[in-house]
Design goal:
three-stranded antiparallel sheet, 9 helices, 10% strand
Amino acid sequence: MSTQPFYVLLVALVSSPADVRDWRVESGWDSCLLMEQMLRRYAGEPLITRCLSSQEWEASGSRGAAAMPVAQQASPSTTRQISAQDSKFLQDLARSDMAEIAAGKLALGRTQTASVRDYAKLMVDSHGKLLSENENVAKLKGVETPAGLDRKHQAAFKRLEDAPDERFDSAYLDHAVARHREAEELARRAAAEARDPNLKALAVKVATYAAKHLDIARQLATAVGRPPARAGAQRLLRAPLP
């Protein structure tokens, strides 16, 4: 048995669940999740994927037994079986992304501050990609993607929309801090409590992005109207997300 920790990414086509391929990943859990997300995004057809730790892989015998959970998930009788709690997690994460996209688009049309505009664009782009990944998982699991914002998010958006121009930047950044704090908490809870592996992987990614976005929003909120403090937020805006 290897003493060096590693991870294994299992991949199968939904149309061919028994044909499971595996890749050994030695650069960490985050790299395994990133490979999983990239494959799912660019494969061109639905995939079933799963990241395993070295202990899980070796405990399976490092052979076909390790692929069984993936094959079972991909079978017609189980691809659409997802718990009510997991369905709610998936839909709540989608609404969170939708709320940030809507607020970001509003900010792009109203802010006169370059750093706030950059942040709003980042929100529209990043949450657009996360929402697309959410929709892919939802389609695979037979979960209906929400048609729009729920009442809570609609009310928060209305308050932001009603903010006077001279206070808009502060209102938008306060909104971003509050919403990303909620999003990170939701995603971490989903990552810990969800049973579906695809949802878990998505939740881990959302939590990472939410924490990053929250950090930038907090720095920008401090920086608005205080030029000397703005450099830190600008560096964060330019830094690549994991």
